[in-house]
Amino acid sequence: MIGLNPNISHRDYLEIIEAISTSESIEDLISRGNKLVSVKYGLYHHIPAFGAQNYSRLNRFWTKGLDPAVQDYLETKSGRPDPALQYIFDQARPYWMTDLLAAEELSGGRDQHRIKLALKNIGDGLLVPLFGPFQKQGYIYVGFEKPREFFDTVFLWQAHAILQALHVRYCILVEALKTNIQLTNRESEVLELITFGKTNPEIGIILGISTSTVAGHVKRIFLKFDVTDRVSVALRAQGQIRKIFSR
């Protein structure tokens, strides 16, 4: 399992990539991902498509182990530009959070303060830019039970490759469902968030739209899947993806 050893053996790496690439539903991918990666803290965001300059909207899809105060901060501040996030995507590579303290581009007082605040509240961890198909970009933070010093230098790049593979597979599964069911882009986004257990108000905050607009999208999604509740639509979506990939 990633995070319990200083590095990942070649054998384990190949087994992990095989498990990811053969996942046939979002639920299956999430389940396998949880079994593959041992993390103390975790954040998985979707961000604007490639070409956006501010990277200011963070669609929070998954979190683990965060203090409620940290989650509240993310909910209220996620619409503000994040220089650290911009820097990571400009460099197109992962970083340990502590490395950002030495980045010249982030030497300003406010930027340094935000990084130090994050280190104080959630500790050091990997910050990873994710580049997926269909112009789907993502961003993940993972903090491990072991300190940074426990891991070999190569571990950062091994973890990056595996997290990138998870993101790419997720994007492929979502796009297959969208195309097969003929969902609009917004309906696809709403359905993704429903499968993550988000309520209409939460979806509205994440996507920057009103709760009533979300309700309208949810209603149309129910009609397309011929269901009347959120649990059923999530299950039906998982089933549809499995059918697509078993053909």
What's the SSE blueprint?
Blueprint: H1 10-21, H2 26-36, E1 41-47, E2 59-64, H3 68-77, H4 83-91, E3 95-96, H5 109-122, E4 126-131, E5 137-143, H6 153-181, H7 185-195, H8 200-207, H9 211-225, H10 230-245
Antiparallel strand pairs: 1-2, 1-5, 3-4, 4-5
Helix pairs in contact: 1-6, 6-7, 6-10, 7-9, 8-9
Features:
2 domains, 247 residues, five-stranded antiparallel sheet, 5 strands, Arc Repressor Mutant, subunit A, single chain, Beta-Lactamase, alpha+beta
Could you characterize the architecture of this molecule?
The longest helix has 29 residues, at 153-181. The chain is of the alpha+beta class and 247 residues long. 29% of the residues are buried. It has 10 helices and 5 strands, in the order H-H-E-E-H-H-E-H-E-E-H-H-H-H-H. The radius of gyration is 18 Å and the shape is globular. A 5-stranded antiparallel beta sheet has the order 2-1-5-4-3, with helices on both faces.
